[in-house]
């Protein structure tokens, strides 16, 4: 585990062979804020190199935005924030996808906390969207083991408790909805890791 925002060193590109893959999570900063957060440039370079090397990659929230940018897509500010308990609708490709389709649902319960969004990277397959943000999840077509998820499915009870005091006024993570996010999320996350060892 690496926390570059705490000053921890990112893996070097010549160390990629030693990595089994990358999971890049979220944060309050934006992809374009490299002058304020210089380590973002290193993450972009690392993500591009990992995809080119054929490593499994999972980007969540900011991680998905970084992944999209590393693959050549535009990342930009959306119309308004999407924060709290919610859902995303799976596309036909998403329902057939071995990771997001693993739960057998057409609509996934998720936790949203974003305002930035992205265009689909060239060759990517759109897997999910919402009314406010149509590009919520993608799989890189050239590397089927590369996923970007704009939303959160990893929110367990402890993480939700940590987030609640930080949420903007009016944003809610409903506990019963969160429990369903965790249940469905565990299925998707397990499917992602199972795909990597096939």
What would you note in describing this structure?
The chain has helices at 39-52, 62-70, 92-96, 157-163, 175-196; strands at residues 22-24, 57-60, 75-90, 107-118, 125-129, 137-139, 146-149. It is an alpha/beta fold and 198 residues long. It has one domain (4-196): Class I glutamine amidotransferase (GATase) domain (Rossmann fold, 3-Layer(aba) Sandwich), CATH 3.40.50. A seven-stranded mixed beta sheet has the order 1-2-7-6-5-3-4. The model has no long low-confidence stretch (mean pLDDT 90).
Low-confidence stretches: none
Order of SSEs: EHEHEHEEEEHH
CATH class: Alpha Beta
User: Beta-sheet strand percentage?
Assistant: 15-25%
Number of domains: 1
Rough outline: globular
- Give the CATH superfamily: Class I glutamine amidotransferase (GATase) domain
Distance between the termini: 24 Å
Average of the residue pLDDT scores: 90
Helix content: 25-40%
Largest beta sheet: what is the strand line-up? 1-2-7-6-5-3-4
Number of strands: 7
Q: What name does the CATH topology carry?
A: Rossmann fold
Helix- and strand-based class?
A: alpha/beta
The appropriate CATH architecture is: 3-Layer(aba) Sandwich
Radius of gyration (CA) equals 16 Å
Largest sheet: 7 strands, mixed
| Helical segment count | 5
